[in-house]
Amino acid sequence: MEDQSKEQPKIDAKTDAKPAVHGSRTSPERHRMIFAVLAYVLFLIPLISGDAKKDEFVKYHTKQGFALFIVSLAIQILERALFWQFVFWMPILELLNLALLVLFILGIVNVANNKKEPLPVIGPIGDWLKI
Predict the structure, then answer these.
(1) Alpha-carbon distance values, 90 to 33, 68, 77, 82 (Å)
(2) CA-to-CA distance for 17 and 29, rounded, in angstroms?
(3) I want to staple 125 with a disulfide (CB 3.0 to 4.6 A). Which of 32, 41, 67, 87 is the partner?
(4) Is residue 19 part of a domain?
(5) Residue 60: what pLDDT?
(6) CA 46, CA 40: separation in Å to the nearest integer?
(7) If you average pLDDT over every residue of the chain, what do you get?
(8) Domain for residue 32, yes or no?
(9) Where are the alpha helices (DSSP H) in the chain?
(10) pLDDT, tens digit, for every residue of 75-110?
């Protein structure tokens, strides 16, 4: 039978702390990142919650998301208006829709990298908007 009287090593509370994970974010930073990403999905969410007014980072990406929405809406209107008259416009409009998807992904990548960079081509529209 083993001797159970062996003493277990004591764990020091100071050294028992979990190591910080590289790239982990604090709760307020995660909150701001979530709302900045939501600005691209549906720009109204940060506006309604008030986060666009509280945080410049969220406000910037809300403006970029709103610009993306405006351009997307304009392309959809053109697509509906030109469908029956000029069928040859359809491939061009579909390429524009694909470009919007790329801009959407680029905006989310900017948020993930904690950057305030304007979206290519439509970024100046976001800078012009007053939110």
Answers:
(1) 36, 20, 12, 8
(2) 22
(3) 67
(4) no
(5) 92
(6) 10
(7) 80
(8) yes
(9) 27-41, 44-49, 51-54, 56-82, 90-112, 123-128
(10) 888 888 776 666 677 788 889 999 999 999 999 999
